[in-house]
Amino acid sequence: MSHNTKDLIEAALGKVKADLVVKGANLIDVFTGEVIEKASVASYDGFVVRVIWNEEDLDNYVGPTTTVIDARGQYLMPGLIDSHLHVESSLLNVREFSKLEAIHGVTAAVVDPHEVANVLGYEGVRLFIEEARRSLIRVLVEAPSCVPAIDPSAGIDGGGAIIGPKEVRSLLTLEGVVGLGELMDFRGVLGTRSHVIAKVEASKALGKVIDGHAPGLHGAELDAYMVSGASSDHESSTLEEALEKARKGMYVFLRYGSIGKDLEVLARLASELPDTRRLTLVADDINVIDLVEHGHMDYIVSRAIELGIDPVKAIQMATINPAQHLRMDDLMGAVAPGRYADMVLSRGLERISVSMTIVGGRLIYANGRLLRDPEPFEYPSWARNSVKVRPFSADDLVIMLNDNLKSVRANVISVRPGSMITLKSVEELSVEGGIVRSDASRGIMHVAVIDRHKASGRVGRGFIKGLPLTKGALAQTIAHDTHNLIVAGYDPKDMELAARAVVEAQGGIAYAEGGRLKAMVRLPIAGLMSDESYERVYDEVKELEGTLGTAGSGLDSVFMVLAFVSLPVIPELRITDMGLVDVKEGRVIDVIVDPVSRAR
Fold this sequence. Notes:
16 helices, ten-stranded mixed beta sheet, alpha/beta, Urease, subunit C, domain 1
């Protein structure tokens, strides 16, 4: 309870007048699953102190300074919670992100800043936490568990920072840090590697929640992973996988973000299970265009309802369920006495349409207008100059052969927009002038990853198919999780141009075509986030999306997919600055399988 327990008790009895009263709403009771008509709620000092089923004694709580909101005909629900989110994927800084969260009824977000951590390390995470404290909503931070995502000794990925057990332990003690971020190195867990186990043990000792990342794990391996303390998973892609995890007590996060849309498949789970307490809705990664044009948890809850999930159950999956997972349901996730006065008013129930957002008893957003601004925060220069690259040319970005070959067979990364899973494809490619060529007719592009942390000159080269881009080249410093510089394109010269533009801007996304730079989004904070307003970033990204549209692609299907092509913890084939990685085998493999024919 609040430090001022006496005042809260007196406010609940009407002896101290409420700060805020919401009057006559249809209250979503997430404990019983009921919709209670004509309910009123009083809050004091940031907490709900009274829930009133009728208005008979409402006057006891209203004083001369009480703000009274007439909510007749609207639905009052707990503030929405996203249990698993990476702010960096929005391209916004935390404060600008929090504005959009408030607009869309999100009052708490559990964020794992492992993107910033991979670039700026421990001190970068501390900066992120400091900025989070200045946001409009509750930004609950998790200490990144896998920085880098893969043990450097594996030799398959080169990163910029390392956060070890000592740093994790320190972060877990900071105010606002609620748990250990997604435990992506599940092989390290199953192999009981000492540095992984030390982070887990530190979290357990402090009573912190441990979030999981367990794509495809089942049977004994899943059980062993859960024994470590991992209590959730957001990587289930089939009903069978999700059901096994839920039956064993895991919180199954049903993802619906800008790229991962597993909710489309997994919604049946929520409709068919008699008890949905272990199911939670999350975004994971969501970009600024989707946030502005569609929304966030309000949109995800609405989509869940469209897919057949009962509206109250869908709301529970974005309120009380995540609060229980966080072990914070005594403070949040419900409109009930003693909980934070984090509440949302929606014009409807079948589709969430936010009219007001209240955080800690303060009205933050009402009827299309933000009523408050986050506190200012400035990142230091070292966090804004993180792109360090050795000089390179177009030839450094493609595969060149000394042999007098006419064509070769090559391992190619095959992507599917809307899925984070990649496949290995073997394709015949022509060789001209010693360069293994791309093939626009089959949508096969060059792809390269350049070390941008230590200026080592390391470049991983390969090919990718399935990106719906018919021409040009796209370069970006968003390449999960180490965030090296990744570039894909048909023409090596365009690839060089786009990559150079990103380096000069100290981070961002650039598209080049026909020898010209066509669009650019600058992301100077760690090469991941903008320092501009969300409106300005939206305009820049929208322009980029329009430019990509003329090249045959939408933003999500290129930028977001390309961002995950270098993450060597999700099957099947990835590319890093070390080269082409077979995730299942955990090693770098050759791009060229064998020659097909030789030139005469």
